[in-house]
Write a structure and sequence with these properties.
The complex is a heterodimer.
Chain A: H1 2-6, E1 29-40, E2 43-54, E3 58-62, H2 69-76, E4 86-94, E5 97-98, H3 106-112, E6 113-116, H4 127-137, H5 143-156, H6 160-163, H7 176-188, E7 194-198, H8 206-219, E8 224-228, H9 232-238, E9 241-246, E10 249-255, H10 256-261, H11 266-272
Parallel strand pairs in A: 3-8, 3-9, 6-7, 7-8
Antiparallel strand pairs in A: 1-2, 1-4, 4-5, 9-10
Helix pairs in contact in A: 4-5, 4-7, 5-7
Chain B: H1 2-6, H2 9-38, E1 46-51, E2 56-66, E3 79-84, H3 88-91, E4 95-99, E5 103-107, E6 113-117, E7 123-132, E8 135-139, H4 140-189, H5 192-225, E9 226-231, E10 237-241, E11 245-249, H6 256-272, E12 275-276, E13 281-282, H7 285-316, H8 321-333, H9 338-361, H10 376-400, H11 404-411, H12 417-446, H13 449-454, H14 481-491, H15 495-532
Antiparallel strand pairs in B: 1-2, 1-5, 2-3, 3-4, 6-7, 6-11, 7-8, 7-9, 9-10, 12-13
Helix pairs in contact in B: 2-15, 4-5, 7-10, 7-12, 8-10, 9-10, 10-12, 11-12, 12-15, 14-15
Bound molecules: adenosine-5'-triphosphate and magnesium ion.
Chain lengths: ~280, ~525
C-alpha cells in the first residue's frame, strides 16, 4: 500500500507550501486540516495549518520544541478540549466528516483516532485489562470476544510472545519499552483508523526504539500513523511524509525523501542541517 | 567547635532527639496504662493482719506509700499499706489504710476465700456451710468443693434468665406495644374486623408473655434456694444466695497455673460480658460493640459523601475563587471543636430531622420520642460531619496524585469523563481515599464529647443489633468505651475500686483504635502494591 504512495510522481518545484498529497485523488485523503488555528487563551499556538494526509502512511511531525507539534496532534482527537481556555478556528475533516461540528460525537472520534503518549501510561491494571479496557468501554462484554481482541492486539504489537504467560500480571511490571508497545496494543484494540504517536520512543533505549519503529512500519498496512519525533533519523527511517513546523506554522509538508534531501524552504534546510532547534 | 556546627551534625542530633522524645512519651503512656491495667485481673494473695489493738482485717494488698515525717530521720521505715477489704455491704468501704507500726501480725490463711458477687463487690472470708433452704448440704472443706461444682450450673442458669428477660420478654413486649399502637389507630378509623384480629393477636402474645414470665420465676427460685454461709475475719456471718455468686477462688492456695486460669477467665469476662455494679465490675462488651458499631456506621456514611464531594471539587468544579473558598472552609471545619458538632447534631439531627421523622412516621408513639432523641444513628452522623473534612482533603490529595497521563490514556480510548473517573481515577486514588478513612476512624473512635449530646449512655439496656425485628436498631442509645472510661473513673459510686477498670478500658480502647486502623492500613497497602509497582 505504502509503495504506491512513494511511487507517486513528484514535483520539486512546489510553490510556497508544497502539498504533493493534495494532488492525489480526493478519496485517498484521510485527514484534511483547513485553516486550523488554535489559541491557548490569548496565545496563538497554531497558525493557519493546512494539511492533507493520505490513508495508510506514516506522517512524521518535526520541528523545534514548542512549535506546536503536540498541540496539532491533540487537535486530531480533540484532546485539547479538556484544556481550559482553548479556542479553535478552522476545521479538521477525517474521512470527509468535520470533527469539530457541534453535533459530532467526541467519544466515537476518539475510538477512530487512537493515541500513544510520550511517556508510556499503562493503567494500573493487569495486561489483559489494559487492552480490554477500550473494547469494554465500547460495549463488548463477551469473554471469548475480548480474549480474541487481546490476543490479536498483542500479536500485532509484537508483544504476544513476551507476555502471553502473564496476562493477569500488573502492566506496571513490564519494562519501559514493553509498556509502550502495550500502549500501542491498547490503542489498536479499539480498531482505530488513525494512531497518533507523540514522541513514542523518546524515553526508550535504542533496541526498544527499533522494535517500535518496526512495529510502526508493520501497522502502516492497516492504520494511518501520525508521529511526532525529535529524532531526525527516525523520521527519515520510518515516515513516508514529513511535516516541518515552526512557531505554530507548517513550513513544509512533503514526501520524506524530498524534505531530507531537497527541502524547498530554507528554514527546513537550516533545521535539518542542525543550525537551529 | 565552629566546624562542629558547620558540619550540620547538631541538627541531625536535634531532630533525632525530638523523635526519641516523642517516642518515649508515647511509650511511657502505653506502659503506664498497661502496668496499671493488666495487673487488675491477677488474683493476688489474701492477707489477714492483726493490729496491736487486736482488731483484724482481711483483704488483698492494693499498694503502699511512705509517710514523710520531717522530725524522724528513719522516716523511710514508716509507711502505710492499703488493703482492699471488700465486704462493702458490711463495712461500707472497700479500702482501708493501715500504718505499718500498728500491725502486730500478718498471716496468709490458705483457706481464705475471695467471692465475686453480682452486687456489693468482692467478699473476703471463710466458707462455713452450704444450705438448701433449711437443709445443710455440706460444711467446711466439703462445702468449698461443692461450691465449685455448683458454680458452672449457676452460671448457665443466670445466662438463661438474662436471655429470657432480654430477648424473649423484651421482644414480646415490643410486639405488644406495636400492636397496641396499631389498635389505637384502627379504632379511631373504625375498622371493626381488623380491630378484632389485632385484639386476638395481642391476647395471644400476652399469654406467651405470661408463660415466659412463669418459667422465669421458677428459674429464679431455683437460683435463690441455695445459700452460701460465709464467716468474715471479724466473726460476722453472712448468708449469700447462690444466685449472686459469680466466681470463687482461694488465691493463697493456688499455684501460678491456677492463678493464670482465673486471670484468663476474668479477662474474657471483661471483654465478653455485660457490666455489673454501675459499670465498675464485669465486662465492657456493650461498650466495645457500641464503639465499633458507631465507627462502622460512620465509615459507611462518610466514605461516599466525602469521596463524591472531593471528586466534584477536583474533577468537575471550575477551579476558581469559589472552589478556593470552599476548600478553605472544609479545611477549617476540621479544626472546629468537636463539642460544636455535638451541639449541631443535637439541634439539627435529633430535634430537627429526628423530630420530623417522629411526627411523620411514629406519630402513634408520641410524646415518647423514637428518633427524636439521641441514638447511634445521630451520633454516627454527627461524627460523619466531624470527619468529613479529613476524608475530602485526603481524597483530593489522592486524586491529585493520579497521573494526568493515564486519564488522557483512558479518554483517548473513547471513554467519557465519568467512565474514566469510575474505572481509572478512583481505583488509582484508592490509597489516598483509604488514608482519609484511616484518619477519620482514628478521629471518630477517640471522640467522646459530641457523643454525650447525641446518644451515648452509661448503661444501654440493649445493643443496637439484636434478634428482634428489624435486627438493626439505629435509633437506640448505645455505650462507648471513651464515655465508659469517663463514667467509671469519675461518675461511679466507687471511684477508687474502679481505677484499674479505667486503665483496662483505656487499654482496650487503644487496642480497638489500633486494630481498626491496622485493618484499614493493610487494605490500603494491598491496593498500593497493586497500583503503583512501576518498574523501569
Ligand atoms: N495547556 C497549555 N496551556 C497553554 N499553553 C500551552 C499549553 N500546551 C502547550 N502550550 C503552548 O503551546 C505551544 C506549543 O506547545 P506544544 O506542546 O504543542 O509544543 P511541541 O511542539 O509539542 O513541543 P515539544 O517538542 O517540546 O513537545 C508552546 O508554546 C506551549 O508553551
Ligand atoms: Mg510535544
Amino acid at each position: 500500500m505504502d509503495t504506491d504512495i512513494q511511487q507517486q510522481p513528484q514535483s520539486n518545484d512546489n510553490s510556497e507550501q508544497g502539498y504533493p498529497a493534495a494532488k492525489k485523488e480526493r478519496n485517498d485523503i484521510l485527514i484534511e486540516c483547513v485553516d486550523l488555528s488554535l489559541y491557548y487563551g490569548d496565545k496563538r499556538a497554531l497558525i493557519d495549518v493546512n494539511l492533507d494526509i493520505p490513508r495508510h502512511c506514516i506522517a512524521a511531525f518535526i520541528g523545534p520544541s514548542g512549535c506546536g507539534k503536540s498541540t496539532l496532534l491533540r487537535c486530531m482527537n480533540r484532546l485539547n478540549d479538556l484544556v481550559e481556555g482553548v479556542t479553535i478556528a478552522g476545521t479538521i475533516k477525517i474521512d470527509g466528516v468535520d470533527i469539530y461540528h457541534p453535533n459530532y460525537d467526541v467519544t466515537s472520534l476518539r475510538r477512530n483516532v487512537g493515541m500513544v503518549f510520550q511517556k508510556s501510561n499503562p493503567f494500573p491494571k493487569s495486561i489483559y485489562d489494559n487492552i480490554a479496557y477500550g473494547p469494554r468501554i465500547g460495549g463488548i462484554t463477551k469473554k471469548s470476544q475480548l480474549d480474541e481482541i487481546v490476543q490479536r492486539s498483542l500479536h500485532r504489537s509484537a508483544l504476544w510472545e513476551e507476555v502471553k504467560d502473564r496476562l493477569d500480571d500488573s502492566a506496571l511490571g513490564l519494562s519501559g519499552g514493553q509498556q509502550q508497545r502495550l500502549c500501542i496494543a491498547r490503542a489498536i484494540a479499539v480498531e482505530p483508523k488513525v494512531i497518533l504517536m507523540d514522541e513514542p520512543c523518546s524515553a526508550l533505549d535504542p533496541i526498544s526504539t527499533e522494535k517500535i519503529e518496526d512495529l510502526m512500519i508493520l501497522l502502516k498496512e492497516n492504520y494511518t500513523i501520525l508521529v511526532v519525533t525529535h529524532n531526525m533519523q527516525q523520521a527519515a527511517r520510518v515516515s513516508d511524509y514529513t511535516v516541518f513546523m515552526l512557531l505554530g506554522k507548517v513550513i513544509e509538508f512533503d514526501l520524506t525523501d524530498n524534505i531530507f534531501q531537497n527541502p524547498s524552504q530554507k528554514e527546513t534546510e537550516a533545521y535539518i542541517g542542525g543550525r537551529f532547534g | 567547635m565552629r566546624d562542629f556546627w558547620k558540619s550540620g551534625d547538631p541538627y541531625a542530633w536535634l531532630t533525632g532527639a525530638a523523635l526519641v522524645f516523642s517516642l518515649l512519651m508515647v511509650g511511657g503512656l502505653l506502659l503506664l496504662i498497661i502496668t496499671k491495667g493488666l495487673g487488675f485481673f491477677w488474683p493476688s494473695r489474701v492477707v489477714v493482719i492483726t493490729l496491736k489493738d487486736g482488731s483484724k482485717y482481711m483483704g488483698q494488698e492494693a499498694g503502699s506509700e511512705f509517710i514523710p515525717t520531717p522530725e524522724a530521720r528513719d522516716s523511710a521505715k514508716k509507711y502505710r499499706i492499703r488493703l482492699k477489704i471488700g465486704n462493702r455491704d458490711i463495712y461500707g468501704l472497700d479500702f482501708k489504710w493501715t500504718n505499718n507500726d500498728e500491725i502486730a501480725t500478718t498471716t496468709y490463711p490458705p483457706d481464705a476465700l475471695v467471692i465475686e458477687r453480682t452486687e456489693w463487690g468482692n467478699m473476703y472470708g471463710f466458707i462455713t456451710a452450704i444450705k438448701d433452704g433449711e437443709k445443710t448440704l455440706g460444711v467446711q472443706d466439703a462445702s468449698t468443693d461443692m461450691l465449685k461444682t455448683l458454680l458452672p450450673e449457676n452460671k448457665k442458669l443466670r445466662k438463661k434468665i438474662t436471655a429470657i428477660e432480654k430477648d424473649d420478654l423484651g421482644g414480646i413486649s415490643t410486639q405488644i406495644e406495636q400492636l397496641r399502637l396499631q389498635l389505637n389507630t384502627l379504632e379511631k378509623e373504625g375498622k371493626q374486623s381488623q380491630t378484632q384480629r389485632v385484639k386476638s393477636d395481642i391476647e395471644a402474645l400476652e399469654k406467651r408473655y405470661n408463660d415466659k414470665e412463669l418459667t422465669l420465676v421458677k428459674l429464679k427460685q431455683s437460683l435463690g434456694a441455695i445459700h452460701v454461709v460465709i464467716r468474715s475475719v471479724d466473726g460476722m456471718v453472712k448468708e449469700l444466695p447462690m444466685g449472686s455468686v459469680v466466681r470463687v477462688y482461694e488465691p493463697n492456695n493456688m499455684g501460678v497455673p491456677a492463678k493464670t486460669g482465673v486471670y484468663v477467665s476474668k479477662f474474657w469476662e471483661f471483654i465478653l460480658e455485660q457490666p455489673r455494679e454501675a459499670n465498675t465490675e464485669g465486662g465492657v462488651f456493650p461498650a466495645i460493640f457500641g464503639t465499633v458499631f458507631m465507627v462502622l456506621v460512620m465509615s459507611i456514611v462518610v466514605m461516599p459523601f466525602g469521596v463524591l464531594a472531593a471528586v466534584y471539587l477536583k474533577e468537575y468544579a471550575r477551579q476558581g475563587l469559589m472552589v478556593k473558598i470552599v476548600r478553605i472552609c472544609v479545611n477549617n471545619l476540621a479544626g472546629v471543636p468537636s463539642m460544636v458538632f455535638g451541639v449541631f447534631g443535637l439541634g439539627f439531627f435529633i430535634y430537627g430531622i429526628g423530630g420530623t421523622i417522629d411526627v411523620l412516621f411514629f406519630k402513634s408513639s408520641l410524646p415518647t420520642p423514637t428518633f427524636g432523641t439521641g441514638g447511634v444513628l445521630w451520633a454516627s452522623l454527627t461524627l460523619t460531619l466531624l470527619t468529613l473534612p479529613v476524608v475530602i482533603v485526603s481524597t483530593e490529595e489522592g486524586l491529585a496524585a493520579v497521573p494526568q497521563d493515564i486519564k488522557y490514556g483512558s479518554l483517548s480510548l473513547g471513554a467519557n469523563r465519568f467512565e474514566t473517573l469510575i474505572h481509572i481515577i478512583i481505583p488509582a486514588a484508592m490509597p489516598g481515599i483509604l488514608t482519609g478513612l484511616i484518619l477519620a476512624i482514628a478521629r471518630a473512635a477517640g471522640e467522646v464529647a459530641p457523643l454525650m449530646l447525641t446518644g451515648v449512655v452509661k448503661l444501654a439496656p440493649s445493643l443496637p443489633i439484636d434478634t428482634n425485628f428489624p435486627f438493626v436498631h439505629l435509633e437506640r442509645k448505645f455505650m462507648h468505651l471513651g464515655f465508659h472510661i469517663y463514667d467509671v473513673g469519675f461518675q461511679s459510686p466507687n471511684v477508687e475500686a474502679a481505677k484499674p477498670m479505667v486503665y483496662m478500658t483505656t487499654f482496650l480502647l487503644i487496642v480497638i483504635v489500633v486494630f481498626l486502623n491496622l485493618t484499614a492500613i493493610r487494605i490500603r497497602n494491598h491496593l498500593k502494591k497493586k497500583y503503583t509497582s512501576s518498574v523501569f
